[in-house]
Amino acid sequence: MNLEERILQRKRRGDRRQLVLEEASLSPVWHSPEPTGRGPTIERLLDRLEPVFEHRTPENVYVHGPAGSGKSAVVSALFSQFTRLLSSPEDSIVTTTRGGSADTRSFAYVDLREATSEFEFYHTILDAMTSESIPQRGLSTTDLRTRVSRHLRGGRILVVAMDHADENGTDRLASFAGELESLGHRTSWVAVGRTDPEEVLPDPRATRTVTVEPYHRAELTDLLTARVSTGLTRNATTHQQLRRLAAWADGDAHDALAALLGAVDIALDDDSGVIEDDHLDAGMESVPRPCIALGRVLTLSENRLTVLRRLVALDATDRSSVGRAASTIASAASLSESTITRYLYEFAESGIVERVPVKETNGAGRPPSRVETRVPTRAFLRLTRGAD
């Protein structure tokens, strides 16, 4: 390629319309402050929480439904608005001589993917109850629990949203619900999960439920249209493409958005100003079914994310067994092969990867298994750029 051709190629790229305007709105892990297509669910949840508007403690609520049905989107948006419109945080951390003001309300949203310990649980709640920054060090779990309890003196109501409450075992909800009950004040919770209420609730009869159904095709198309309208340039996609994507996703907004973000990533690699049909096809192919939630994957430690990125990039031959995958990754990483092997087994236990037994094998002993990822490949790699 001569110099003139190089310059003209760059000029053509510069003349082409920009594709991405606001990438965050295309991400499966981002929630809009105004959830699309979940109006009835919002109303049912508001009905359950009605007493809090009259400064009374509402009953505990369990919001449940399948993956990608908008449960987290609804609860996180509602609690954000509750905090803005109804909450009255203390101006500073209370002392032993000053309790909370009477007839006030606090709301805390806790993502149990991130708050995995009692310390993190209480730290998140206390941070929501006061306008003062809460240090990460120098305080014990007991200190945090005591300070939360002091804030509740004088009649303050605390409502805590516990998102992804059943994700790492159904006993987690009972554990954290017990922590709130142990405070001995006017507390209640809204838990979010996929598990059937009878299997996860500490006391099903004492808990109200809100069931969230999968998105209808038209609702999911509207959601995708709303995301594209802010995330991409005008006419970057067609309505027919979004309808086809909604039909393929079968009511799962996470998978639809993962495929869309994957298609955008592929289009950018092609220096395209629009999403072509083959980009969309490749984006959908990059999302395995079943698929692990990207929000869950992104809570992994830095080293684990690096290993997973390199695993995703391996070809089928290098993923033909756990040992081969670990060896290949270790050859270009600072981690030992044994550490990487341990990570791969952890991934398998948590559903991030699947170990598929190799049918044709000779020799004695346990047959090897190839490693198949459950991660939306292109979306994951785009969201974790710079992790290596």
From TrEMBL:
Q: Which InterPro entries match?
A: AAA_16, P-loop_NTPase, WH-like_DNA-bd_sf, WH_DNA-bd_sf
Cross-referenced Gene3D superfamilies, in alphabetical order? 1.10.8.60, P-loop containing nucleotide triphosphate hydrolases, Winged helix-like DNA-binding domain superfamily/Winged helix DNA-binding domain
Q: Where are the transmembrane segments?
A: none
Extract the Pfam families matched here.
AAA_16 (PF13191)
Location of the Orc1-like AAA ATPase domain: 35-184
The record's annotation in SUPFAM superfamilies points to: P-loop containing nucleoside triphosphate hydrolases (SSF52540), Winged helix' DNA-binding domain (SSF46785)
Report what the protein is called.
Answer: AAA family ATPase
Q: According to the entry, what is the taxonomic lineage of the organism?
A: Archaea, Methanobacteriati, Methanobacteriota, Stenosarchaea group, Halobacteria
